[in-house]
Specification:
The structure is a single chain. The protein is mainly α. It is built from six helices and three strands. The protein has a three-stranded antiparallel sheet. Helix 1 packs across helix 4, helix 4 packs antiparallel against helix 5 and helix 5 packs antiparallel against helix 6. It is elongated and about 65 Å long. The N and C termini lie far apart (56 Å).
């Protein structure tokens, strides 16, 4: 079975991630307790995800479907591939730069943050530039 490629909103991806952990009661308080905007989830994200067949609802709760799980992990995989490409580009910068242009002590911290996705490639490269 091919995994469908769909463009979802940030809220829809966040809801899929939460439902991957456990089903969620459909009450606003329970949605908010998971760190999501109840209004955005219940009025915008849920109808679209139900229509796509990525989530299902029972009497009072939401759960992810196998298709929803596949879409969730496909998105996570794509993010990881992008981060890996940025790490490789960071290594290329390290090889290309002159030794005096880089503060080597800052490289491990910048690389860790880049791999975790907390900074962009440009920010990581900028943080290792030697100050004169």
């Amino acid at each position: 079975m091919a995994i469908p490629h769909v463009d979802l909103t940030t809220t829809q991806y966040a809801l899929l991630a939460e439902l991957e952990l456990a089903p969620m009661p459909r009450r606003a308080a329970d949605v908010s307790a998971r760190g999501l905007s109840a209004e955005e989830v219940l009025s915008d994200a849920v109808p679209g995800l139900l229509w796509l067949g990525l989530i299902q609802e029972s009497e009072d709760s939401l759960a992810i479907t196998s298709a929803g799980t596949a879409v969730h992990y496909r998105a996570e995989h794509e993010k990881a591939v992008c981060r890996l490409a940025e790490v490789a580009a960071f290594a290329d910068v390290l090889e290309a730069e002159e030794a005096t242009a880089i503060d080597r002590r800052r490289v491990p911290h910048a690389l860790r943050r880049l791999a975790q996705g907390t900074v962009s490639l440009e920010e990581a490269v900028g943080s290792i530039r030697a100050t004169t």
